[in-house]
Amino acid sequence: MDKYNLDSKKHKQITKQFINKEEEENNLETVEFYFENGLRKVKPYYYEYKTFAKGRWIKKNILNVFRDEFRDRTKEYYETAIEKGLIMINNKIVTPSTIIQNQDLITHKIHRHEPPITDKKIKILYQENDFIVIDKPASIPIHPSGRYRHNTVLHILQKEHGFLNLFPLNRLDRLTSGIVILSLNKKKAREFEQLMTKHKIQKEYICQIKCDQPIKLISHKLGLNLVHPDGKSCITIFKRISYNGSTSLVKCKPLTGRTHQIRVHLQYLGHPIVNDPLYCNIKSWGPDIGKGGIDINDDKKINELVNSISSENDFDNKIDNLNNECTISHFSDPKPNQLLIWLHAV
């Protein structure tokens, strides 16, 4: 395919065509789930990632972009994948030093192995014409993202219950369990979103934290995963329910919906969720476990923290082999404590 030189409208049309083709190539009818060792697994399948060049990639070579943006594999893996034509630009074989240009189409073909999740059933608690209410087990992502595609709430419900169009009205982190409401049509989804925006509907969670004192209302800035003065404003209200001598059971009411909001706020206060592998990790954060935040201007410290947390919580075996069948890492079975945190939506 020749390099694109398209106006915005035409670019969107071609992007939609590729998305539709991608969906056809990954039809759920061909997906095979199987169960082993208390886990739900997906039989490996071929998959091709497709995306147009992002602004920050332009004028950079293809190898460095993959090395810096997708750190789940080694630089050596990407070098070999480029040389074998598994990674291409505009459907053409390139070299590791090829420079990415504006509107280039980047593709990466793999034999995909998804991480396993719990084998617990997704219970449908309530169903009407316009929406369903489910009890999401911990470890299952809501929608396809990153390493997960078919091992997700949306695809499992479609495969096992025939729900073709689902629109999550509230989202839970992968490790969080609890109530999720899904609309069966876009109109109701928009109506629900408006109610959420006007604070007509509120969410509550229960969690177990390291704490022996009551927690009060806080309001400070939050980045994605760290408290940051340049982040988006957010508020969470906490109320202690009980205390057992070392941990507390707490009701959490987030008034905004930022990524990992409850988990980050609790860590910042010095009361992280007890079994949170990201925010209650002494080895990664130190003895204070991130209380009061960390120096956000220390790039070296931030990188060391990210690398430490990644290594502590990575349960896959990095097998970067590039034989005829598998071109992606295989995942070992996660330990039980890697499948959940004590945070539940009620």
From TrEMBL:
InterPro entries: PsdUridine_synth_cat_dom_sf (IPR020103), PsdUridine_synth_RluA-like_CS (IPR006224), PsdUridine_synth_RluC/D (IPR006225), PsdUridine_synth_RsuA/RluA (IPR006145), RluA_PseudoU_synthase (IPR050188). Its EC number is 5.4.99.-. GO terms for biological process: enzyme-directed rRNA pseudouridine synthesis. Residues 130-267 form the Pseudouridine synthase RsuA/RluA-like domain. Signal peptide: none annotated. The active site is at D173. It catalyses: a uridine in RNA = a pseudouridine in RNA. One of its GO terms (molecular function) is RNA binding. PROSITE patterns: PSI_RLU (PS01129), S4 (PS50889). Keywords: Isomerase, RNA-binding. It is an enzyme of class 5 (isomerase). Belongs to the pseudouridine synthase RluA family. Responsible for synthesis of pseudouridine from uracil. This is Pseudouridine synthase.
